[in-house]
Write a structure and sequence with these properties.
single chain, mainly alpha, DNA polymerase, domain 1, RuvA_2-like
């Protein structure tokens, strides 16, 4: 087999892998968030619902808040584990006034349903 034939074969395999339904549909299973979390009033459980925030990070927010309430959302970078990028990603879900209204909705998982087999085009 010539080097050119090998390259063509690998190109076809790579194309099939990248265009397979499993990879293309992988992004559909993401959790959708709506609403906001009040940084100065939210409970540990409410803070834990934020995307990318776990219990340990929620505890760190509570500890910081007990020392000094947040005056600006950007002050979250002072809490260990929160950098500028993470705070920017969380900004749409954060507030300093009003109630906490964050809801995390997981879309219907298509992988739970049996997949239909495609007919070969030969």
């Amino acid at each position: 087999m010539s080097a050119r034939a090998v390259m063509v074969a690998w190109g076809m395999v790579l194309g099939l892998v990248l265009l397979s339904p499993g990879v293309a549909e992988a992004g559909r299973g993401r959790t959708q968030y709506s609403g906001v979390v009040n940084l100065n009033e939210a409970s540990e459980k409410e803070l834990d619902q934020l995307p990318g925030v776990g219990l340990k990070a929620a505890e760190s927010i509570l500890a910081h808040r007990q020392k000094r309430p947040f005056q600006r959302i950007e002050e979250l970078v002072k809490v260990k584990g929160f950098g500028k990028k993470k705070v920017e990603k969380l900004k749409p879900y954060l507030t300093l006034t009003g109630p906490t209204t964050l809801k995390a909705e997981k879309p219907d998982n298509a992988s739970d349903k049996p997949k239909k087999k495609r007919k070969s085009r030969h």
